[in-house]
Design goal:
single chain; 160 residues; mainly alpha; 7 helices; elongated
Length: 160
């Protein structure tokens, strides 16, 4: 006589086996298989020399001894004149200004203002030209915070 027969009063074990235990076994098997596959993929990536963790990424991106262009750009952000200075210097700054048609010269007032602006920011332009020529650029970001990492320089880059 079977344990799962109706006569023994153990009939409830069959639905428990089919609807609870079997799905749990399948889920556990899938989960373990997924972990094994992920570990295999990560080891393949590591074998190519690429980083797979935040600490490895931090070390991978660090190039000691190289001149960092970002440090120069941060100086440039400090050197560039503020928006209030630009508004005083450039007529129409911060507003929509209609550009002249192709081949038509800018009004003399705007040409002089732009020339003055370039002269005012001469040092910043020279430093940014120096930074553009460098091959290494990395913002000082703490990547240990993962997806919640703060990007304090993003606003400066957007406004530059």
């Amino acid at each position: 006589m079977s344990i799962l027969s109706l006569k023994t009063g153990q009939w409830w074990k069959l639905p428990v086996l089919l609807f609870i235990v079997l799905p749990l076994v399948l889920l556990l098997t899938w989960h373990v298989g997924l972990k094994i596959r992920t570990a295999w993929i990560l080891s393949e990536i590591r074998d190519t020399g690429l980083p797979t963790t935040v600490a490895e990424l931090d070390a991978y991106l660090d190039e000691p001894g190289k001149m960092n262009a970002v440090e120069i750009f941060l100086e440039v952000f400090e050197l560039v004149e503020s928006d209030s200075d630009l508004e005083a210097l450039l007529p129409g700054y911060g507003r929509d200004v209609e550009e002249p048609d192709y081949g038509v010269h800018w009004p003399e007032e705007l040409s002089e203002a732009r020339r003055d602006l370039l002269l005012l920011n001469r040092e910043a332009l020279a430093r940014s030209s120096e930074a553009v020529g460098l091959t290494f650029a990395r913002y000082p970001i703490n990547m240990d915070e993962g997806i919640e990492v703060l990007l304090p320089y993003l606003g400066q880059v957007r406004s530059f």
